[in-house]
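Protein modeling request. Please complete all fields; requests missing the sequence field cannot be processed.
Requester role: graduate student
Desired output: 3D structure, token encoding
Chains: 1
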Amino acid sequence: MEPVTRSGDQLRELRSRLGVTTREVEELSKKIALESENEEFYISNAWLTQIENRNSVPSIYKLFSLSVIYRTKFTDLLAAFGVLLDETMRYQMSTPLQNTHLATLEAPANGKCMNFPVRFDRGFNLEKTNLISRMVEMWGEVPISFIQRLDLRHCQYGYIGTDDSSMYPLLRPGSFVQIDSHVNRTHPSGWRTEFDRPIYFIELRDSYACSWIELRGSQLTLVPHPLSGFAVRQFPYPQEAEIIGQVTGVAMRLVSSEPSDAPPK
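Delivered output (265 residues):
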């Protein structure tokens, strides 16, 4: 679909299909504006005629009113004007941030496909905890039913910044991690290998961190991987550091055009 150039025709077709006049749209939108106490939701007869004939771009408020009146999804109207929310993840992948942060992954409709990492290490298994060491090799389209196994709606996700090598090589910079926010307390020691040792996502005063942790009284220690070259950091707990949850696996692995897995010097 070409953005904007056919948007006016599409809006007119939606209205005609419902048998609604521009005057009726004006009256219905007036009710929405009154209930919301925001005149931006109001659509005048003249404005709607202009949109349909000249393919102007409406504000998000007026587009919302049209989606309500025309009984159509807001996202579908956005698409009519060239804004494809399904592309959100792709653009996020092409514009990585340097700092570690929480991330939101959208779960599209069941009948669709989406771009997602599809070639992993041969030992890749979604059910195993050692997913954190797996590396995505290529992108492709996969069924949404596969993506839903990641439980996008009930888990939090974090992004390991491209400058954050604190858990290298266990967690590579540019990876997405799945976080179980129900597990926000440290486990008693009992792990035998680094793959068993719980990794946590932590919110600091001005940033986020992802690492092993040790909690002694009111002192929270962030323990990086010994091969990362990063130093141990300590923070007053919970005044300056909050445990968001335990990392339970990799939700996504981001591979740059010039990948470099070496920790910073």
